[in-house]
Structure formats: C-alpha cells, structure tokens
Amino acid sequence: MNFYQEITLIPDAEISPYFLWSKVYTQLHIALADIKNKHGIDGIGVCFPNYCYKEKNGKTFATLGTKLRIFAQTADELEKLALPVWFARLIDYVHLTSVKEVPNKATEYVVVRRYRGKSLERKVKDYAKYKGIGYDEAMAYCQKNKATSEMPYPYVQMKSLHNGNDYHLSILQEPAEQPKLGSFNAYGMNNISNHVTVPHWIN
After folding, report:
1. Separation in Å, CA 181 to CA 33, 178, 197
2. CB hemisphere CA count around 111 (13 angstroms)
3. CB 113 within 8 A of CB 190
4. At what angle do helices 135-144 and 120-131 cross, to 10 degrees?
5. Is residue 147 predicted with pLDDT exceeding 50?
6. Residue-by-residue DSSP string for the chain
7. Which of 34, 118, 134, 135 has a CA that sits 20 to 30 A from residue 43's CA?
8. Residues in CB range of 164: below 8 A, 6 or more apart
9. pLDDT tens digits for 5-21?
10. Model confidence, pTM
11. Topology, domain 3-116+160-200
12. What residues form DSSP beta bridges with 129?
C-alpha cells in the first residue's frame, strides 16, 4: 500500500462521535461498493490509527478513536474513490486530507477484520454437540451466558441498505508481522479468516 487519505472527526459538543462514525462509514461503504462495481477495484483497505481494545482490572476498553485511514496501491485508485464527493455533506463534521504517499515512518502493519460472532442458534447447536446435551439445556446455558460470551470489540452502528435493519459493524484490528497484499470487502476490511494488511503508524 503506497497511498492513503485520512479522515478525522471534528469534535462537536452537540453530536456524538458514535453518530458521526455511523454517517462516515455509511458513506465509505457506499463508495467502496461503487468503485468495485464501476472499476472492479477491491484493493482499498482501512485502519484506525487510534484503535484500542484491551482489558485492564477486569474492565474492557474499546474505542475506534477519531481517525480513519484509507489505503490503496495507487493514487489513481483513491482519486477514483472520490471521497470529497461522497463526504461533501459531512464537510462541517470531518476533515479529509488529500491523497498522500505513505510516509517512511509507517514501518508497522495491521490486519483489520469485520468480526461477526456466531448466531445464538449456531452457538446452541455447537454447545449441545460439544457437551453431549439436549438442545433445550444448551439454549438455557447459552442465554444465561450470552452477555459474557460476546466480544465487545469497537463497532460502528450501521443500517442495512437492503432492508433498513440496524446492525453493529464490529471491528477487530491486530498487529501483523509482515505485509500481505490482497482484496478487501466493501467495508475496506478483511473477512474474519483473511490476513491482508495495511500500513500503520501513530501520529
């Protein structure tokens, strides 16, 4: 990945960053789907420079921070993505940089995945099989332990463009030992089993 653009949420006392992330990522999701449909480009990936997910003293700290970087192999791909057009209505709430070369200080890499946990139905069946117990007993156990079994990764609240349902776009970002090129989904991320990387550095 040789080029990038950076989006920074502008603090606003009247608008929560969660609401802004929802608006920003909806637009980015549409833009990534559009560029794949029009130009066949699926090598654009993202990372969150200030991402944090850690446990301390029995508590979980999870945040996306306020920045998002969008990476591509070429400047032309980012020009075709046309982020200034997609974010025109959010200009008062976000700062978008021009297309830049990835700096020399970007010596680390991360894998960014969309985390999709198992459905309750799948968990119940797997637990029943694992323990050799009945479905009802497995259901009772899984419902009782549902709160502790879910991974509280940082997420963006999204609304399906197909059916209008709300859903969480849970995001898992982890360090990678070496770079790996490949394709990304329409969120600019890996699916859970992929390991395609993007550069990472902290300002």
Report:
1. 19, 10, 7
2. 19
3. yes
4. 120
5. no
6. --EEEEEEEPP-TTS-HHHHHHHHHHHHHHHHHHHHHHH-----EEE-TT-EEEEETTEEEEE--SEEEEEESSHHHHHHHTHHHHTGGGTTTEEE---EEPPTT--EEEEEEEE-PPPHHHHHHHHHHHHT--HHHHHHHHHHTHHHHS----EEEEE-TTT--EEEEEEEEEEESS-------TTSSB-TT---EEEE---
7. 118
8. none
9. 999 999 888 899 999 99
10. 0.83
11. Alpha-Beta Plaits (3.30.70)
12. none
Place of tokens 């608008």: 15
Cα–Cα distances (Å) from 151 to 6, 9, 24, 56, 148, in that order, read: 28, 25, 24, 15, 8
User: What tens digit of pLDDT does each residue of 21-50 get?
Assistant: 999 999 999 999 999 999 999 999 999 999
Q: Which amino acid is at 21?
A: W
Give me the sign of the Cα torsion angle 168, 34, 71, 182.
positive
Least Cα distance to 186 among 163, 149, 150, 161 occurs for 161
Alpha carbons 32 and 188: distance in angstroms, whole number: 7
| Cβ neighbours, 10 Å, residue 169 | 20
Where exactly are the structural domains of the chain?
Answer: 3-116+160-200
- Residue bearing tokens 């997420």: 155
CA distance 188 to 43: 8
